[in-house]
Request: fold
Amino acid sequence: MSQAPHIRPATAADAAGIARVHVASWRSTYPGILPDRFLVNLSPESYTRRWRALLGGGVRGRRTFVAVDPTDGVVGFASCGPQRTSIPGYDGEFYAIYLHDQAHGQGWGRRLMGTMAAELVGENRRSAVVWVLRDNPSRWFYERLGGQRLAEQPINFAGARLSEVAYGWMDLLPLARQAADPRVR
Ligand SMILES: CC(C)(COP(=O)(O)OP(=O)(O)OC[C@H]1O[C@@H](n2cnc3c(N)ncnc32)[C@H](O)[C@@H]1OP(=O)(O)O)[C@@H](O)C(=O)NCCC(=O)NCCS
Reply:
């Protein structure tokens, strides 16, 4: 393992580390938004299996990155790829970005978004959207990084009727430049 905090493409060997962050971050992000029963029943073992399958090539075009701390291991992850919805004029999508609580506010989020933007640009995608639950306060992060509010739609998830909001970046290059933001640590 490198001695400095860094971001790198995820491999199947990261599945357990990603699942640990996934479950912890969902449990701290979504109380009051997603049903308690759903959050209580999240299982690191089950998400490890899911992530192992995803990282083993389960979904074409999906790219996943991990934020790695030399002491704590995987402290965050992010995934991107082709747009899965149908917002006209945008060809990429940020599918997920989750950090362990202890890793918030250190610049990891900005660098992970930059890394995904650079990856999409490298695949000749110029633009991207992200969908975020309207009640998730982390959505202001996307506005801070220049995302433009594009759309809102209802969504049923885990038995709850929710609303999700799309933000878009028509030009990914300014975001891609933030992949190397020196403010991490
Ligand atoms: C959203 C998240 C990825 C942000 O990562 P982070 O590492 O804490 O953010 P950074 O330190 O890189 O911050 C980048 C900028 O965004 C701002 N920012 C971060 N979170 C914010 C928030 N919730 N509201 C407003 N601004 C925010 C920071 O102040 C910073 O701005 P500045 O550089 O101009 O001061 C992280 O908080 C997280 O994992 N949240 C829980 C999971 C989640 O909701 N993910 C999104 C699901 S769609």
